[in-house]
Amino acid sequence: MTPAYEIRRLDGWGRWVTPKALRSRPIHRWYVFPHSFTSRLVHGLIDQWHLGQADTIIDPFAGAGTTLLAAKEKGVPACGYDISPVAVLAARVKIANYSKQRLRCAWQALQDAIDPTSWSRPAKPYPELVNRALPGKLLAAFDSIAQQIAELACSRAERDFFRLALLSIVPKYSRAVASGGWLKWVVQRSNVRSIPSTLRHRVAEMLADLDSVRLPRRAEWRVKMADARELPDRASSFSAVITSPPYPNRHDYTRVFGVELMLQFLDWEATRQLRYQSFHSHPEARPQRPCHADYQPPERLLRITACLKKKGLERKIVRMLEGYFLDMHLCLREIERVCRPKARIALVLGNAQYCGVRIPVDKLTAEIAENAGLGCDRLLAVRYRGNSAQQMGKFGRRPSRETIVLLSKPRSRNS
Ligand SMILES: C[S@@+](CC[C@H](N)C(=O)[O-])C[C@H]1O[C@@H](n2cnc3c(N)ncnc32)[C@H](O)[C@@H]1O
């Protein structure tokens, strides 16, 4: 039988699940993802759950590191993973401990090394997307400064600090910029000559943030590359989860961050492999998954996909939805394994709709979580988002719910 879940409205938290407020928060603002939630959300949950220094939070979809940094602000240890090297760099730089004096020395050395007369052509070939996004001398400028950062005589954490600063100014110059969850081609007027001063402002802001914020300096916050479907931790390691998996809305982070990925981390082929391996929230994913013989799709999902097939929804989108909930099962199975009994879990999720059919991602996830041995405590509807212009034209205005799904791990498997 399909379980009924009550949805409770919690209007005050709506702006905590969008990234807007992060853009003015010290350190958080160094790099913001289009789908980041805010530190207020994390602080609110930490307070409600009475978490402290003896606890450890995990975020298996760390993104720009909001959960990790917000947990550090509260002094609660935390560990994060993400499949994207852009996310891991952003999160790692935000939670690192620095000597401000050493950073200032390295910054002086970098400024001395930046030489616009050497920006004639990049030292190595780049994929076509990067060439098109950074035409003329732009690519040579970013390539040269990245090289100078790599050659700085300082620690890896200090070099990463400047790598992130450089990465964060790319959208001001790139012809391909993230717009919502898509990559949009734009006409940019920012001139290559302004790159040193833009970088100077950025680094000055980052250094000022370090002056304005006092965070604990213990080594209890870490982030690594890993797949949320196969976490590297031992069983019963964590007392809480605060995370947001990608929504099944077809947004592909490897495209949204394609320029950044191929400018600093991966070649074209490795970017494509990352696209395939990411959560099945976009139709191009075709991940290799751990064994999942234990997965039974919920009846409700089978009814929805049957209806979508009848309505003629593209096969690859139906496959995406089937894969999405399988991935959700694998991720919840891992969460159940790595969490201690009585652990509290918050997932921020967005519902979707295709062909006018609503996909209740929150309820389906709650059901999959219960099948994986977790308890569903509450579904809190915090925000309603408009549907896409295309869907609106065909089916009218039908906002989709954004929900915080609150789960917990029982005291024991049978309780
Ligand atoms: C909604 S974002 C998380 C945003 C984050 N809460 C924040 O505040 O910045 C989802 C993240 O999941 C990551 N991701 C996608 N597939 C993954 C997988 N299989 N394992 C781990 N992370 C994955 C993406 O790279 C992206 O950073």
Structural class: alpha/beta
CATH superfamily of the largest domain: Vaccinia Virus protein VP39
> What proportion strand?
15-25%
Radius of gyration: 22 Å
State the name of the first-level CATH class of the largest domain.
Alpha Beta
As a percent range, the share of helical residues equals 40-55%
Number of strands: 12
Mean pLDDT: 95
Overall spatial form? globular
Number of helices: 15
SSE string, helices as H and strands as E: EHEHEHHHHHEEHEEHHHHHEEEHEHE
- The figure for the number of domains is 2
Small-molecule components bound: S-adenosylmethionine
Strand count, sense and barrel status of the largest sheet are:
8 strands, mixed
**What is the topology, as strand order, of the major beta sheet?**
1-11-12-8-7-2-3-6
Termini separation comes to: 21 Å
Low-confidence stretches: none
> Would you tell me which CATH topology of the largest domain applies?
Rossmann fold
Which architecture name of the largest domain does CATH use? 3-Layer(aba) Sandwich
Protein architecture, described:
With 415 residues, the chain is α/β, with parallel strands linked by helices. It has two domains: 7-83 and 228-250 and 297-408, Rossmann fold; 100-212, no CATH class. The chain has 15 helices and twelve strands. It has helices spanning 39-48, 66-73, 85-95, 100-113, 128-133, 138-150, 156-173, 195-212, 253-256, 258-264, 268-277, 299-310, 315-338, 361-371, 389-395; strands spanning 7-9, 57-59, 78-82, 176-179, 182-185, 221-225, 238-243, 339-350, 352-354, 357-359, 375-385, 400-408. The strands form three sheets. It has an eight-stranded mixed β-sheet, sandwiched between helices. Strand 9 (352-354) and strand 10 (357-359) form a beta hairpin. Helix 4 (100-113) runs antiparallel to helix 8. The longest helix has 24 residues, at 315-338. The protein is globular and about 70 Å long. The two termini are 21 Å apart. The mean pLDDT is 95. It binds S-adenosylmethionine. Residues 33, 35-37, 60-61, 63-64, 66, 81-84, 87, 227-229, 244, 246, 253, 278-279 line the site of S-adenosylmethionine. S-adenosylmethionine binds at residues 33, 35-37, 60-61, 63-64, 66, 81-84, 87, 227-229, 244, 246, 253, 278-279.
